[in-house]
Structures
1.
Amino acid sequence: MGERRAWAGKRAEVMGRPGAGAAYEAARIRFELGEAVRLRREELGLTQAQLAERAGLKQPAVARFEAGGTMPTIPMLERLAEALEMRLSVRFQPLRDAG
């Protein structure tokens, strides 16, 4: 339990720094986008290389994206959506409704 409290304290300390909340939110978005692409790619039975070819990207770019390592542009998301046989939908949501 001491380790858990130590981690919670460290997290609170880091999140208390200026800009930490925005950085955390950006990382969350990158992770969720990457996970969604990976799940759909796997659903279609595609390798990262096959998805990359369909989207006009290189396999390492797909790997970085799926790992949450890059913040994509809208054009990149559009290319990935088309390659994944999906339609890109971007929307704004009130903060009180965001989970």
2.
Amino acid sequence: MNKITEKQLLTDKIVEAIQDTKGEDIMIFDLSTIENSVAQTFIICTGNSNTQVSAISGNIQKKVRNDLHDRPWHVEGTENSLWVLLDYVSVVVHVFQRETRAYYDIEELWGDAKITKIENQL
């Protein structure tokens, strides 16, 4: 399997896991054309509480591990679940609580990326 297909499978699986746990405001940032970016893809989403942020990040890890046999290279933020970062090297996931996401506003930092917004499922 080539890298593009692998990255797309990983991205799709992460989005599916976020949606399963009712994550909101899902955005996919394609950083592949941006020089010196830390990853090829960022996925950002919002949870409404520490519990939900924790559930979203846990579900992402479980689904990716079970379905794609991959684990994050690095995980940060699980102590307080205000902002959990899951680093799968080519894809980095940011799971925020709403206020924390608004405060850091990392969407602005990567404003020149190609951005795909995923509609919330009802």
